[in-house]
Design brief:
Blueprint (H helix, E strand, L loop, with lengths): L1 H101 L3 H9 L1 H22 L3 H6 L18 H10 L5 H8 L3 H13 L7 H6 L8
Helix pairs in contact: 1-3, 6-7
Length: about 220
């Protein structure tokens, strides 16, 4: 009888140890799964943080695109106004010529055509509109341009917010107008004068060899 009880006790002890071992193994497996789940949660959290960052960047870029579209429409309207004004002036000149010729007032006509007052007025108006459009599209141009120059040769806008001739010259270069003859036509100077201004400004720059290339890369929304 004692032997039988001992056998039963041993069997129960064995089953209990086995059960405890299984429970211990299950607990270890559960802890391992919990660690894996924790790692997955950490990874998901990191992915969510990255998605939030990307979404923030996308929202910022979307804001830039919206602003760029707004400016494009604004300055397209300005361009249309310039074209309309130019067409109106051409029509007025044409009507004036017809009127003077019909009235046999060719001398008066020559005086009008040789007068610089109307040309100066048109050029001033063009510069005003150009400065407004360019600085609206590239508000940091002067600041970035100065970073290319030596400290003693910093430039600034005029008191009325307009650009100097030198700044307009390099504003045109920023827009891709690089031929001195074309710049001279737009600014009302001789190509030789424009060449001299370009050479002088290069001499004031920190990197003469790459100066104009650097100017063409100013005010980039996206880095090149």
């Amino acid at each position: 009888m004692a032997f039988l009880l001992a056998v039963v006790a041993f069997v129960l002890f064995y089953l209990s140890r086995r059960r405890n071992a299984q429970l211990h193994l299950s607990q270890r497996l559960l802890e391992h799964k919990n660690r894996q789940l924790h790692d997955v949660n950490e990874q998901m959290h990191a992915v969510n943080e990255q998605m939030l960052t990307v979404n923030g960047q996308l929202q910022h870029l979307n804001g830039l695109l919206v602003e760029a579209n707004r400016k494009r429409e604004e300055y397209l309207r300005l361009f249309v106004d310039i074209c309309a004004s130019t067409m109106e002036r051409i029509t007025n000149y044409k009507n004036l010529v017809k009127l003077k010729v019909r009235a046999n007032q060719t001398k008066d006509l020559l005086k009008v055509l040789n007068s610089d007052r109307m040309a100066d007025h048109d050029m001033s108006r063009f510069f005003m509109q150009f400065d407004k459009a360019f600085l609206g599209l590239y508000p940091t141009f002067v600041e970035e341009f100065n970073k290319l120059l030596k400290p003693d040769y910093q430039v600034c806008l005029n008191k009325d917010g307009s650009m100097s001739m030198e700044l307009r010259l390099f504003a045109l270069i920023r827009l891709g107008v690089t031929e001195s003859s074309e710049i001279a036509t737009l600014l009302g100077y001789s190509p030789h004068t424009i060449y001299n201004y370009r050479s002088a400004m290069k001499g004031r720059s920190l990197d003469k060899e790459h100066f104009e290339e650097q100017v063409r890369n100013l005010c980039r929304v996206f880095p090149t």
